[in-house]
Protein: Phosphoribosylglycinamide formyltransferase
Organism: Microbacterium aurum
Amino acid sequence: MLRVAVLISGTGSNLRALLEAAADPGFPARVVVVGADRQADGFAHAEAFGIPTFLVPFREFETREEWGRELQAQLEVWSPDLVVLSGLMRLLPASVVDAWAPHLINTHPAYLPEFPGAHGVRDALAAGVAETGASVIVVDNGVDSGPILAQQRVPVLPGDTEHTLHERIKPVERRLLIEVVRAIAAGDLALPAPEPH
């Protein structure tokens, strides 16, 4: 059984989908802990499923590296086989990435390498493209630049706003995440090591 830790910053909609999938006895992975860098609404999903949580508030640390050391210490308590970033809106320090990669994955609301960064949906709309997408990647020390594990195109419709487009991307993101976690747990997907930057 693959042990999964999930890190969040917000509502945790991807987390919720993963918890629902993992509640199926036939699913080969279990979420063992949920952590966050701030008091996140997504903790409610963890509590609903009886999953332990931990909080490492970014603002309480002098540097990103100090925050990363505490985050790393909290993760190590749970010995996860895989760490999933589920809307964690903060770049991890290199020490944390190096400790977990390639067993560290993230979702992104664009068809990478198109539109990396924090505003993938907005950037796609601004570029006037006919389609964007969703991706699941291995995290490396770049910005959304790690090896791609799964992705799917999502059309941009006339009149789309950032909100409407993102709402159509989210279900695709959730499904891809669940498929990737299942495939890793079942041994059907080998995680490629990120190339050093």
